[in-house]
Amino acid sequence: xxxxxxxxxxxxxxxxxxxxxxxxxxxxxxxxxxxxxxxxxxxxxxxxxxxxxxxxxxxxxxxxxxxxxxxxxxxxxxxxxxxxxxxxxxxxxxxxxxxxxxxxxxxxxxxxxxxxxxxxxxxxxx
Length: 126
Description:
With about 130 residues, the protein is α+β, with helices and mostly antiparallel strands. It has 7 helices and 4 strands; from the N terminus they run E-H-E-H-E-H-H-H-H-E-H. Helix content is about 45%, strand content about 15%. Strand 2, helix 2 (about 40-50) and strand 3 (about 50-55) form a beta-alpha-beta unit.
């Protein structure tokens, strides 16, 4: 399913306002992913919404696509392969969507990604 970025927001109250607007449009929290790189925001969001919350690893935020691939599939021995990063939280599509929002994440903002169940993205590309 296609996804799109609704936007990035500085405060959790702004995120809750956006979530309410998305609910009124017909989305459920199962269709929404919130991404932050601040543990404080992550903890507060976990306790205040049922949307999917992902904590981006700030140590890999500026890696190129090739560097990210090398982390997942290192070219070493099989024991090195077993110890590779196993908990890549972001789906490839989400990772691509976040490319234009790295500065906002670095500044502590929260990015809202929505499953495009109503095909809004296609309707914007007339």
